[in-house]
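quick q for whoever's on today - can somebody do inverse folding on this one?? i tried earlier but teh output was garbage lol. tokens:
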């Protein structure tokens, strides 16, 4: 019996520029940053290929191939999130599990709210919560619960919760295409 080998189409290749990859496949940003390529959000060298950029960061050919495979895996994984009402990244779910355990609240979830405030009108409120009502929607994914009130889901539909480490510290971050006109500091927004 002959075994069939399934070829996986590589959407991202070494000869693509960083700018093209970020523009076409935003799901790759986290994988790029975890590979040490932190210029994704600012000062991206749009003319430089991924291979040139990775080698400029001191990577070997094998490491470049490994990162390209991770980028393609990130794109493939992001396809599973299409059409979801609320998305949580693996990094956010792992950090949330950690926080829940540290606070002895493993059975709780993370309540995501819109609260008035900031210079643009609204901010996100995040709190551990073990109480829900019939006015709440509960999204369970990657081993964690996200609680959003039914009145807020229209503003959060398709939003993504991530956990970001930066020089200023780590924290949960919500990316939301429904929000318009965020303030300069990025902490508040309007709809």
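ok took a stab at it. sequence:
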């Amino acid at each position: 019996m002959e075994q069939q080998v399934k070829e996986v189409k590589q959407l991202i290749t070494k000869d693509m520029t960083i700018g093209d990859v970020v523009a076409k496949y935003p799901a790759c940003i986290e994988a790029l940053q975890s590979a040490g390529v932190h210029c994704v959000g600012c000062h991206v060298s749009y003319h430089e290929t991924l291979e040139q950029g990775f080698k400029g960061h001191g990577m070997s050919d094998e490491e470049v191939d490994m990162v390209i495979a991770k980028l393609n895996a990130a794109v493939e994984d992001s396809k599973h999130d299409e059409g979801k009402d609320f998305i949580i990244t693996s990094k956010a779910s792992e950090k949330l599990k950690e926080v829940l355990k540290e606070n002895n609240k493993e059975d709780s979830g993370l309540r995501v709210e819109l609260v008035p405030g900031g210079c643009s009108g609204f901010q996100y409120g995040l709190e551990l919560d073990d109480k829900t009502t019939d006015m709440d929607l509960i999204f369970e994914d990657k081993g964690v619960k996200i609680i959003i009130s039914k009145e807020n889901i229209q503003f959060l539909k398709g939003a993504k919760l991530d956990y970001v480490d930066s020089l200023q510290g780590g924290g949960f971050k919500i990316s939301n295409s429904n929000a318009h006109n965020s303030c300069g500091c990025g902490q508040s927004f309007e709809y």
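fwiw DSSP finds six helices and seven strands in the chain. also The first strand starts at residue 86 and ends at 88. so keep that in mind when u check it
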